[in-house]
Amino acid sequence: MAYTKDMIIELLTTLKEKKTRIELLKFDLTHPVKISESEMLSAMALGAPVNDGILRDKYSVSDKTMRIALSYKDVADRINRKSVEDMSEELLQLVCEVERLEFYMKFLSEEQRKLLDMLYINKRKWPEIEKATGLSRRTLNRRKEDALKKLAEMYGYIEGFKK
What we know:
It is a single chain. This protein is mainly α. It contains seven helices and two strands.
C-alpha cells in the first residue's frame, strides 16, 4: 500500500486519540472486569428450586442445575479470555502505530516536527501558528508539504519490503 499525504495526516490527527486508547487498554488489561466463579455459580446454582411442588432448601442443588452452572462458567471464562485477547491485539496494533510514527518523526527537522504537532496533533489554526513561529503561511505550508512527503517516503520504504 502506498502511503499518501492524506494517510499521513490521518495518522497525525489520530495520534492523541490512539495514545488515550493505549492507556485505557493498559488499565483494563491490568484491572479486568469479569464475573467471578463464585458469582457465576451462586447466580446459577444457589436458587430455590421446586421439586414435586415442595420448596427445597435454598442451598440444595440438583446435579442438572450444577452442570448448567459449570457450563455457563466455562462460557464466561472463554468470553473473558477472548476479551483479553482482543484487547491485547488492539493494544499491540496501537502501540506499533504510535511508536512507528513517533520514530519516523525523529527524522524530520525540529521545525517540521513542531509544525506538524501544532497543525495536526494539537489542531491549531494557521494564524496562531504564523504568530507563534513568525513565519509566513507560504513558508509554513512548504515545510508542512516537505514533512508530509518525507513521512510518506519513510512509510513507503518499509512497505516496499512487504511485497
